[in-house]
Amino acid sequence: MTDTIETPPPAPKSRFDKFWDSDFAWSYRHSPVAIIASVVVVILVLAAIFAPLIAPYNPFDPASLNLMNGFTPPGTPNAFTQDTFLLGTDDQGRDVFSTILYGMRISLFVGAAAVLLAMIIGVILGLVAAYFGGWVETLIMRIADVQLTFPAILVAMLIFGIAKGVTPPEYRNEMAIYVLIIAIALSDWVQFARVVRGAALVEKNKEYVQAARLIGRGSIPIMFRHILPNVLSPVLVIATISLALAIIAEATLSFLGVGAPPTQPSLGTLIRIGQGFLFSGEWWILFFPACTLLALALSVNLLGDWLRDALNPKLR
Radius of gyration over alpha carbons of the chain, in Å? Predict the structure, then answer.
């Protein structure tokens, strides 16, 4: 008789190996657009987070400004101080490269916080509307339908104006960023609510929800512990795309003068300042902040488009 040699069973895959072999990771590895977009987003986000370490100057420290450096072209020594700036300076002698890094921090913070707040509001209202139905669903969805008849930027301007009007004058500059976040979030919650409601209407009639009701689970645990995890995929896609829209909305409001205050300028504020000098020859004050905003919004939007396709089971 011959002895048979048993081969040992293969070692179980680690979580990273399972993720790397998943359809999601395969789709990412075979999408050059998603890879380039994610690299650009990571670079810009890290540059904004570490702006105090990367920026050669603190553009919002009055003690470090020299008006003699004003309107210095990119890469050209100043005629008076002989200082050279990578992307030039603005009318107050601030380094444009440093202002972009600090301004991008404000734009990213406002955009991310506004999307997070809009997602929380929309998800809660969408779950409530789908689960309870009746007059609750009718009320929430009719409010959403009425809000959709107005452009989101006009709704944000209206909310920003009302909130700023009720804020004491001495706190308006300090609260302007938070008011801006609330204004953008309240103008952007509708799409989250509609998508979550549609998905939750399907989930609430499935067997696991009926079983949870039979064992005495309450409405809130069923909504947030059972239904919510199964409707998160479209929410994440919308959140990614909404981040680009929120950044553009913040830039638009700041460009119109109703967004970030001059003491905390965002990319939109920098573009508004540069627009005033565009036709006098100082093109770099507008050009470089506008290119940064374009690269940031476009990369996030492309990443959101890829994420939508990757999480769509019909396209697999």
Answer: 25
**DSSP letters for 1-25:** -PPPPPPPPPPPPPHHHHHHTSHHH
Helix (H) or strand (E) holding 314, with range, is none
pTM score, two decimals?
A: 0.87
Under CATH, to which class is 28-57+84-315 assigned? Answer: mainly alpha
- CB contact at 8 A, 237 and 304: yes
230 to 203, 224, 258: CA distances (angstroms): 8, 10, 39
For residue 56, what are the CA distances in angstroms to 50, 59, 72, 97?
12, 9, 16, 8
* pLDDT above 60: residue 1: no
DSSP state of 90: -
Give the number of C-alpha atoms closer than 13 A to the C-alpha of residue 273, restricted to the C-beta side: 24
Q: What is the pLDDT of residues 30-63, one digit of tens each?
A: 889 999 999 999 999 999 999 999 988 888 777 7
Q: Which of 243, 224, 217 is nearest to 307 (CA)?
A: 243
Distances (CA, A) of 184 to 149, 168, 236, 239: 16, 21, 18, 13
CA 266/CA 260 separation, integer angstroms: 6
Rounded CA separation 94/70 (Å): 7
- Both tokens assigned to 261: 């205050």
Strands, E, within the chain: which ranges? none
The domain spans of the chain are: 28-57+84-315
Distance separating alpha carbons of residues 216 and 197, to the nearest angstrom: 23
DSSP at 298: H
